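Late entry, written up from scratch paper. The run itself happened at the end of the previous shift, but nothing got recorded in the book at the time, so transcribing now.
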Amino acid sequence: MKKTAIMAMMFPGLLAALCACGRSVSISEIWATPGELRVPESVLHDAIRNVLYVSNIDGVPTGKDGDGFISRISMEGKILDFKWISGMDAPKGMALRGNTLYVADIDRLHVMDALEGKIRESFKADGAKFLNDIAVDDDGAVYVSDMQANRIYIMRKRSISVWLEFKDFTGINGMIFSDGSIYAGSEQGVLKINPADGKYELFIPLTGGIDGLKAFDCGRFVVTDWKGKIQVIEQGKKPQLLQDTTGRKINAADIEYIAEEKTLLVPTFFDNRVVAYRLD
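Output as recorded:
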């Protein structure tokens, strides 16, 4: 009996996963919201309540105009609450821990109550220029990227300060916490950062900038470059381009990926929609 046949009998799930790891990925559209959103920058899945949150800049990304807000939409793309939480300037990246929703907003980090749908507190990040995305580790520390200042802030125990400053990497943007490490997108590729000591390395080189960054499978990531590219990347392999809407001027900003449903959610920024895709 062949080795693969024995493995299939003993570990069917493992063999299927190993086979899937080597496959290319296909993309197909599931649904899209109406073009009623107002410069949507980020989308986040709330698995507890099974809804999606969308940050709306509603203006320019650096405008301190008080017009920014968070929308709440269904898993089928229906807008449930257009201005669910308002009172922000230009909200961008989000993260959720329990019932606490964190939102980056130019030079402030908002802490929100996802049950009551309101801002609890806002923390000023001294020296921040363009707070962008957020990651939360297992201990509850909140990391916030600053794309223009090329740094990462950290908030612990209601105190926010600079955690890392980069001189060799620029455009620090999309972030995730995965398998004990912080991963951050930059104009040079994906950085891998040790939360314990802040040491970092260029994990996957990639030109063109990284806006959205999510773990995919088998050590791979799905990334966007804001202008319109969606790619799957991994160490030592050529990036796989899934879609490029740059020519149609449809942006691809800070994404969400729901692994259980193989669903990728893409906010289209100036195109004013969220588009859901299935990745197979």
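The first helix runs from residue 3 to 10.
(Scratch paper discarded after transcription.)
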